[in-house]
Specification:
The structure is a single chain. This protein is mainly α and 291 residues long. It has 3 domains: 1-92, Alpha Horseshoe (Leucine-rich Repeat Variant); 102-162, no CATH class; 178-282, Tetratricopeptide repeat domain (Serine Threonine Protein Phosphatase 5, Tetratricopeptide repeat). Helices cover 67% and strands 0% of the residues. Helix 13 runs antiparallel to helix 14 and helix 14 (233-245) runs parallel beside helix 16 (267-282). The longest helix has 17 residues, at 179-195. The radius of gyration is 25 Å and the shape is elongated. It starts with a helix and ends in a 9-residue tail after the last helix. 36% of the residues are buried.
Length: 291
């Protein structure tokens, strides 16, 4: 492969790593027709390292590369054919380079396999490293038609903890779950959005959960935080009052929570903090066990 083509691979792979913290998935790397054609030629290179780098770079390009890959499946070079099919699967199922190193070409022809084989593959994905398996499992949940395979992917994501639960919530799967679980997922999703500065979306998730658990002090407190961050001081004070009335009592956290900085000087905030301090003093102290 030419030095120019090798340069294209380096640039595309580097661009694929430069994503903002707020993105939950890597964005496709822009590439022109000439670049994509050079990368496809690299799939048949005599150098294994070049073939591997071209595979990863094409997968990073994403959907823009698909029409070219569809054509290269008929390439007379069998290695180009094989790798073109592999890259199409990597793009379709959102397989990262790190995960590909673990599962190889397992996802090639996934949709054409029997439902039993697909369930086995889902379990193999679930046993892979969590941060790389969430996106492909979420893609399976969004595309799979067979109920058994779909459920296997859903539960695999659920077993992955917060990351998998958030992916399921974003897919709208949580409405089939018990109410308690739905509320927990909404809180986690709202917290994630709050940390990313997406205050309106965080408020939307908390509001949905509050309809199901109107006296959940954590939800009410989190709503106060969102309103404070949005500089909606009166609403923040109102939600904080509701949280305390519902049982919120962590004065130290409340006093040091940066999310509430905009209402720190509000008279009603100061009054509520005093209330919690008084309750803290009146709370029975536990005797330290003798040693």
């Amino acid at each position: 492969m030419s030095a120019a083509a090798a340069g294209i691979i380096i640039v595309l792979l580097a661009a694929g790593e430069q994503t903002p913290r707020t993105q939950t998935a890597k964005q496709p790397v822009p590439a022109g027709k000439h670049q994509i054609e050079q990368l496809i030629a690299g799939l048949g290179s005599d150098s294994y390292a070049t073939r591997e780098a071209s595979t990863d770079a094409l997968a990073a390009v994403g959907e823009d590369a698909v029409p070219f890959l569809d054509r290269s499946i008929s390439n007379p070079d069998l290695e180009v054919q094989r790798r073109s099919e592999l890259v199409l699967a990597l793009i379709r199922w959102a397989i990262s380079p790190e995960l590909r190193r673990v599962i190889g070409n397992l996802m090639v022809g996934f949709e054409k396999r029997s439902h039993t084989e697909r369930e086995i593959i889902v379990r193999a994905l679930a046993s892979a490293e969590k941060k790389h398996a969430v996106r492909p499992l979420a893609r399976i949940v969004s595309l799979e038609k067979h109920r058994g395979v779909w459920l296997s992917a859903v539960w695999a994501l659920f077993d992955m903890g917060p990351e998998g639960e958030l992916a399921l919530a974003e897919l709208g799967v949580e409405h089939n779950w018990p109410e308690r679980l739905d509320i927990g997922i909404r809180i986690k999703l709202g917290n994630s959005l709050l940390e990313d500065g997406q205050y309106d979306k965080a408020m939307e998730q908390y509001s949905i959960a509050i309809k199901k658990a109107p006296n959940n002090e954590i939800l009410l407190y989190n709503m106060a935080c969102v309103c404070s961050l949005k500089k909606q001081m009166d609403q923040a004070i109102e939600w904080l009052r509701k949280a305390i009335d519902a049982g919120y009592d962590d004065a130290n956290w409340m006093e040091n929570d940066a999310d509430l900085d905009t209402i720190r000087d509000h008279p009603k905030y100061k009054q509520m903090l005093r209330e919690l301090r008084i309750k803290e003093q009146l709370r029975p102290k536990r005797n330290r066990p003798e040693t």
